[in-house]
Design goal:
The chain is mostly helical and 138 residues long. It has 7 helices and no strands. It folds into 2 domains: 43 residues, no CATH class; 58 residues.
């Protein structure tokens, strides 16, 4: 039963009932529920934004000991942990010395730096770059 359902049930009960029990105990319980619901709704608005959560994730993956930035393991780690909250929680909780091993076991990607892709021709007529017979003009 959620807080809202419990709250509605108690309020309905207070409206129907009359007597000492309602005056002493139920009103105090209603005050507590009001406080909890107000605290819950204000806490929900104070959660970090998705941008802040992802910025923290990227920062934490970049801080992993012996992690090569811009490696396939780095990029895949960010993608996996951004999608899976449970794995993200485990990643944050395990000791720093185990994080790289954890990511390698989960992802099985290389921790070697990737070469930056180089595109000589930004137009859609780059078919000649794939041709084995292509000889550059220089």
């Amino acid at each position: 039963m959620t807080f809202q359902m419990l709250y509605l049930y108690i309020v309905k009960d207070v409206e129907v009932s009359a007597g000492l029990f309602v005056d002493n105990v139920s009103k105090r319980l209603i005050d507590i529920l009001h406080h909890n619901m107000a605290a819950k709704s204000s806490a929900a608005t104070n959660w970090p934004s998705i941008e802040d959560q992802m910025a923290n994730l990227v920062k934490r993956v970049g801080e992993v000991q012996r992690m090569i930035i811009a490696s396939p393991l780095y990029w895949e780690s960010i993608e996996l942990l951004a999608k899976d909250e449970t794995l993200r929680g485990v990643f944050y909780a395990i000791p720093d010395g185990c994080k790289l091993h954890f990511l390698k076991r989960k992802i099985r990607a290389s921790n070697e730096k990737e070469a930056e892709p180089f595109y000589e021709n930004h137009n859609n007529d780059s078919w000649h770059l794939r041709s084995p017979s292509y000889k550059p003009p220089w």
